[in-house]
Amino acid sequence: MERGAGVKGRGFGAATIALHTGRETTPERENSPPLFLTSSFRFDSAEQARAVFAGEEAGNLYSRFTNPTVALFEERVAALEGAEHAVATASGMAAITMVFLALLSAGDHVVISRSVFGSTTNIANTLLKRMNIGVSRVALSDLSAWEAAITPATRMFFLETPANPTLEMVDLEALSRLGRDKGIWVVVDNVLCTPCVQQPLALGADLVVHSATKYMDGQGRVLGGVIAGARKLLMDHIYPMLRNTGASLSPFNAWVLFKGLETLPLRMDRHCDNAERVAAHLAAQPGLGGAVLYPGLPDHPQRELARRQMRRFGAIVCLDLGSRERAHRFMDGLELAIITANLGDGRTLTTHPATTTHAKLSHEERLSAGITEGLVRLSIGLEDLRDILTDLDQALERSR
Ligand SMILES: Cc1ncc(COP(=O)(O)O)c(C=O)c1O
Question: Is the shortest distance between the CB of 81 and ligand 1 below 6 Å?
Fold first, then answer.
C-alpha cells in the first residue's frame, strides 16, 4: 500500500489532522481507506517468510502482529495526541491491562487514583495483587498523597483526569514532574477528554490510554482501545506483550474507529457546547445548585485547573439526586436519553454508576471515589440542545 506523506508535523489543526493523517491508496486508488479483513498475509517464497519473520524485510505477517487498517488508526491517534507512536488494542480495558502487564513485574508497586473506572479498580484488586504487584490508592487531586505513596518499588502512577464519573481532576503538569523526578511512569486514561480536549503527553505524561469505544467511535458501534506515547517505550515493552497475548484490535473495528476519528474534533466541540449549556441549565434549577458536577460551572472547585489543562470542559455532566430511588426515577423518566453502560455516543446516554459500572467495588471504595447512590452520569450527546433540556426537565419533574 502506498501511503501519502500524511499531515503530521506540518502545523495543521486537529480537524485537518483527523481527516488527512495516513492518506493512503492501493493500486485501486480508493478514496476511503481499505479494510484489510485478513488474519494473515502471503509470502512470495519460503525465504521471504523467513526474512519477514526475522525482521530482515519489512512486511505484514499476521494480524495479531500488524495489519494495515489497524496501522492507519494508530497513526491517526498518534497524530492527534501529539505522540511519536500509538498501539491499538481490542478494548480500553485491553489497553490498560497491557500497560500493567508490560511495564510491571512481581515486587513492583503502582499508585492508582481512587477515582478510576470500575474495571480498572477490579484489575488492581485481583490481577495485580495476584502477581504480587503492590497497589496504593490515593485521592486523585491530592499531590502530596501521590508523593507520600511512593516507595522504592514504585514504577507507575495511573489515573484518569477528569475521573469517570466524579469529574475530579489532578494537576497533570505537577504530577508528571513528580513522576519524572522519581523515575516513575505517568499513565493517563484520557477517555473523557479525547486528544481534542486534553493532551496529557504535552503536559508531561509518559503514556495515554483510551477506550476508543467511546468518543473515537462516537456512535456506539464497536469496542477498541489505544495506547499512545514514545515509540521506544511502546515498541520495546507494550507491543511485544500485545502481539504475544493477542489483545489486538480487529481490522474491522479499526476501520470503523478510523472513520470515527475523521469527525472527532467537530463532534467534541458540539458535545462540549451542549454539555456546558446543560450543566448551566441544571445548576439553575431550584434545589439542584450544588448537585450538578461539571468542571465548567463557575463554582466548581477545580475550574481554574480545568481551564489550564483542558481546551474545553468535556461532555459528561453528573447529578447527585440524593438517593438511589430518585436517581432511578429520574433515569426511568427520560424519554430521549438512553439508559446504557456507555458514554461518548452521539446520543445522550445515562448511567447509574453505583449499581452498574462501579457495582463490583466495595461500599467504602465507592464512597472514597465519590460515587454516591444518588449520582447519575449524563453523557451529553449531539442532539438539538432544546430537546435535551426538555427531556431532562420533564424527567426531573417526574422524579420529585
Ligand atoms: C474511563 C474509562 N476507562 C476505560 C474504560 C474501558 O473501556 P472498554 O469498555 O473499551 O474496555 C471505560 C469504559 O467505560 C472508561 O469509561
Answer: no
Number of other CB atoms surrounding residue 20 within 10 Å: 18
The minimum-distance atom of ligand 1 relative to the CA of 160 is 1
**Does residue 278 contact residue 237 with C-beta atoms inside 8 Å?**
no
**Cis peptide leading into residue 162 (ω within 30°):** yes
Contact status, residue 9 vs residue 82, Cβ threshold 8 Å: no
Q: How many residues does the chain have?
A: 400
What is the distance between the alpha carbons of residues 192 and 186, in angstroms, rounded to a whole number? 17
3-state secondary structure of 95: helix
Q: Which CATH architecture has domain 264-399?
A: Alpha-Beta Complex (3.90)
Tell me the CA distances in angstroms from 385 to 81, 196, 272, 275, one per residue in order. Answer: 29, 21, 11, 9
Closest Cα to atom 7 of ligand 1: 92
36 alpha carbon – ligand 1 mean position (Å):
26
CATH number 2.40.128.120 given to 2-262: no
User: What ligand 1 atom has the least distance to the C-alpha of 96?
Assistant: 4
Asked whether the domain spanning 264-399 has the same topology as the one spanning 2-262, the reply is: no
Calpha distance 171→266 (Å, rounded): 26
Q: Is the CB of 223 under 6 A from ligand 1?
A: yes
Q: What is the pLDDT of residues 53-110, one digit of tens each?
A: 999 999 999 999 999 999 999 999 999 999 999 999 999 999 999 999 999 999 999 9
Is the preceding omega at residue 34 within 30 degrees of 0, hence cis?
Answer: no
Q: 347-356 in b/e burial notation, b at 16+ Cβ within 10 A?
A: bbbbbbbbee
235-281 tens-digit pLDDT: 999 999 999 999 999 999 999 999 999 999 999 999 999 999 999 99
pTM for the model: 0.95
Q: Number of C-alpha atoms within 13 angstroms, CB side, residue 56?
A: 6
In the chain, domain spans: 2-262, 264-399
Q: Report the SS3 class of residue 197.
A: coil
Distance 212 CA to ligand 1 centre (A): 8
